[in-house]
Amino acid sequence: MSDHVIALRNVSRYYVMGEFIVKALDGVSVSIARGEFTSIMGPSGSGKSTMMNLIGCLDTPTDGQILIDGEDTSGMSEAELAFIRNQKVGFVFQQFNLLGKLTALENVVTPLLYAGYKPRERRRMAIDALERVGLADRMHHRPNELSGGQKQRVAIARALVNNPSILLADEPTGALDSRTGNQIMELFDEINSEGRTVILVTHDRELGLKAKRQIHLRDGKIEV
Ligand SMILES: Nc1ncnc2c1ncn2[C@@H]1O[C@H](COP(=O)(O)OP(=O)(O)O)[C@@H](O)[C@H]1O
Ligand SMILES: [Mg+2]
């Protein structure tokens, strides 16, 4: 295994918009060590989500190489990329992306449904994950019966239930008040202390500076 859990080598992601090319990411090279806690900061439109989606194999680069656990993802099939997404990465988004008709517990169980666990095991793992984020007493509530911070905790439990080594969060506090945002940030800090690599996108300077390392993007490039 490589000591760099993530490496981007001269990675670009261009979008063709009619006669224009949007260089969402433009020749970015960066390595992230196992167990690091990094924030990706920068103004709106600087390429933060693009970089996050590439790291999480939700998207593929126009050019360059992305290595996850030392493995080059460039030549990988959709099935191989799906394996990385499911086994190595947990995602958290600004708008929580919970399924409104399901309870907290059912939402957290979702990533385990096709992973070959028995129903009893799935339930145990999901309850453990909800306990981990301090929400075991809300497991039978639906999203509309939870506060924003609680919804984000459910989303974090869902991201952790597969025990991924990498946690990616794109503006996870963007829909929360600052006090709740700080609590979520503390939770990420704890999750990182357990040895997980955490990457957090934020345009909130104060929160971004709480991570141990910052990557600043502007116009699709890393600012030094
Ligand atoms: N699917 C897309 N099609 C066209 N342009 C896009 C697409 N996604 C992002 N972009 C453009 O790429 C740039 C970077 O976007 P993004 O990564 O979402 O920035 P950020 O997350 O920092 O706000 C922006 O100019 C945005 O308009
Ligand atoms: Mg974004």
Please tag this protein with its features.
10 strands, 224 residues, single chain, four-stranded antiparallel sheet, alpha/beta, binds magnesium ion
Write down the overall mean pLDDT.
Answer: 95
The SSE string, one letter per element, is EEEHEEHEHHHEHEHEE
Class by SSE composition: alpha/beta
Distinct ligands? adenosine-5'-diphosphate, magnesium ion
Proportion in helices: 25-40%
Fold and architecture overview:
- This protein is α/β, with parallel strands linked by helices and 224 residues long.
- The protein is built from 7 helices and 10 strands.
- A 6-stranded mixed β-sheet has the order 6-7-8-3-9-10, sandwiched between helices.
- The longest helix is centred in the last third of the chain and has 16 residues, at 178-193.
- The radius of gyration is 17 Å and the shape is globular.
- The relative contact order is 0.21.
- The structure holds adenosine-5'-diphosphate and magnesium ion.
- Adenosine-5'-diphosphate (ADP) is lined by residues 15, 17, 22, 24, 42, 44-50.
